[in-house]
From TrEMBL:
SUPFAM superfamilies: MFS general substrate transporter. Its main location: membrane. It is found in: Cell inner membrane. It holds the Pfam family MFS_1. The chain crosses the membrane at residues 20-41, 53-77, 84-101, 107-126, 147-170, 203-222, 255-278, 290-309, 316-334, 340-361, 373-395, 401-421. InterPro entries: Lfuc_symporter_FucP, MFS, MFS_trans_sf, MFS_TsgA-like. This is L-fucose:H+ symporter permease. Signal peptide: none annotated.
Length: 429
């Protein structure tokens, strides 16, 4: 590590390539876990006979873990290092995946939610550390670019998660509801137990990958990327940091935008498979293909946006992405044929660059001595993914139309567009 010089503000003079690649490989690991939730929502909806609101609690358990653990994770980073926090996150992720062993046999919805929550605790450590670390492991001028590159790995993991769910959780044949319609009560009970046992399979493979990644992080040295110039920075208490962030209006606007962005993204992805099932007679395995297309679109959208942001003002690019996204989700909500599913897929293309760009721009409004906790609060805004899908499900139950409920993420996209428009005007001033 000696050939890389660390500046007093924590940034490096150049990016250590091996370490940056390994750090970026963490992003698909939480991408796989997040996309598997979209599979589980569909599976649990039928097996446990849940309402749309109740099935969305999978996301509430998952992203609620992020909300509760982000601040403790930031304090661990502040006291130790990004690498230590990453190793803790990987260990907890392994523990969470292991909980699917008892959950798949106990066959209760509560136990599955507990396992999902446990995974989220580990992922909160990973995201709180990896997002900020990725932006800092190199020259400051390229912080946003590095984070966007790392985020580009996310849809690779998301696609892998959907494929694992498609082939290891969903089965061939008619849809679950159609199969159970021909069974008696005893057969339905046995069938449901069998379906729940399949939910364990993807997590067994993920555990092996996590063990390998943990070993690599243990043996490979990483730069600290922590502030060293104590003459220009002061030691701040946790309470002082929260007071500073509460006074920072640009930071608060960004938190709201990130809350709504993550919420609408997860809401659309949570219900895309269900939307395809409601507008056709296909089974769950075939319907899951549309999530694969969504994540491919998400991946492409990131590349296109990264290119456009090198040519044009990044806020203007994302504002127009948001305008198109709102129109697209309007089509999804109000056009009552199967083309609405393809509109939902196109919305994923427009989600691409938002998270990393909002994250980096929000973090840029925070002074260096407040950065670890500031980054954790941005990660806490992921709680939007626990709230917005639940609202989507609640609206669906109330109006009796899963499709019409897509107006919920539509309204979120409108605010995200306003955020980038306002930021564009502020930057010009």
């Amino acid at each position: 590590m000696s050939k890389f010089t660390q500046y007093p503000d924590g940034y490096l003079d150049k990016t250590p390539i091996l370490q940056f690649i390994l750090l970026s490989c963490l992003f698909p690991l939480w991408g796989a876990a997040a996309s598997l939730n979209d599979i589980l929502i569909t599976q649990f909806k039928s097996v446990f006979t849940l309402s749309d609101f109740a099935s969305a609690l999978v996301q509430s358990a998952f992203y609620g873990g992020y909300f509760l653990i982000a601040i403790p994770a930031s304090l661990v980073i502040k006291k130790t290092s990004y690498k230590i926090a990453i190793l803790i996150g990987l260990t907890l992720y392994i523990v969470g995946c292991s909980m699917f062993y008892p959950a798949s046999h106990m066959a209760t919805y509560t136990m599955f939610l507990a396992a999902i929550f446990s995974i989220a605790i580990g992922l909160s450590f990973l995201e709180t550390s990896a997002n900020t670390y990725s932006s800092m492991i190199g020259h400051k001028d390229y912080a946003t670019l590095r984070l966007n590159i790392s985020q580009t790995f996310y849809p690779i993991g998301a696609i892998a998660g959907i494929l694992l769910g498609k082939y290891l959780i969903f089965q061939d044949g008619a849809s679950l509801e159609q199969q159970m319609a021909t069974m008696n009560a005893e057969q339905i009970h046995a069938f449901k137990l069998s379906m729940l046992e399949h939910t364990l399979q993807p997590y067994k493979y993920i555990i092996f990958v996590l063990i390998a990644v943990t070993v690599l992080f243990l043996i490979i040295p990483f730069p600290k990327c922590k502030v060293t110039n104590m003459e220009n920075t002061r030691e701040t208490s946790f309470i002082d940091t929260l007071k500073y962030l509460a006074r920072n209006s640009a930071f608060k606007k960004g938190i709201v935008a990130q809350f709504l962005y993550v919420g609408m993204q997860v809401a659309v992805w949570s219900f895309t498979i269900r939307l395809a099932l409601s507008l056709s007679d296909m089974n769950e395995r075939d319907a899951s293909n549309f999530m694969v297309y969504s994540f491919i679109g998400f991946f492409i959208g990131k590349f296109v946006a990264n290119f456009l942001m090198t040519k044009f003002n990044s806020n203007a690019v994302l504002m127009w992405y948001s305008v198109l996204g709102a129109i697209t989700l309007g089509y999804t909500a109000f056009v009552n044929d199967f083309s609405a599913v393809y509109a939902a897929i196109f919305a994923s293309v427009l989600f691409g660059p938002c998270w990393a760009t909002i994250y980096a721009s929000v973090l840029d409004t925070v002074e260096q001595e407040y950065r670890e906790v500031g980054g954790a609060v941005v990660v806490m805004s992921i709680i939007g993914a626990a709230v917005i899908p639940a609202i989507h499900g609640f609206v669906s139950d109330k109006v009796g139309s899963l499709q019409l409920a897509f107006i919920v993420p539509l309204l979120c996209f409108v605010y995200v567009g306003y955020y980038f428009f306002d930021k564009m005007k502020t930057d010009k001033k």
